[in-house]
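task queued by scheduler; priority normal; single chain, no ligands, no partner chains; default sampling; output format set to structure tokens
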Amino acid sequence: MANFSPATLSADMRAGLVVFLVALPLCLGIALASGAPLMSGLLAGIVGGIVVGAVSGSHTSVSGPAAGLTAVVAAQITALGSLETFLLAVAVAGLIQIGLGLARMGFIAAFFPSSVIKGLLAAIGAILILKQIPHVLGHDTDPEGEMSFSQPDQETTFSELLGLFGDFQLGAPSSACCRSPSW
């Protein structure tokens, strides 16, 4: 509550509404993609957005849904055997984080070089770009289930990129941007 100011309440409420409208579908989508109940995605969004934001007291903290965790959550639910066991593991991890925060152990983050974090983010960006190139250029019109390296259609990221040389559709990028959305 130290950061609360009645003068900025209107702007804070508008910003909160925008973030809520962006985060809600993402929370539900991540829950659905992870095989978890939709209510767990909704609760995770509430805890991540409201509780963590209020308790952290930081102007720059970011908390909320992260689409990159979908595969981690789905794999851990499968590995642990049930959603309930996974939720227990998440609760224990949360308690550990709270304990580390109360013990002022945030300095541990200084041991992770910023170049490692930047490299990880650059690698994620490169993967996303490489996976989209065949779709943008009209080579692969079926994006369903193709976010992993080995795809259901027996292709890989690199074989799709190599296939572009024999199947380049010059008008695909322009037609994709000019079509009206089907939704």
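post-processing summary
- The chain has a mean pLDDT of 76.
- The chain has two domains: 1-109, 112-175.
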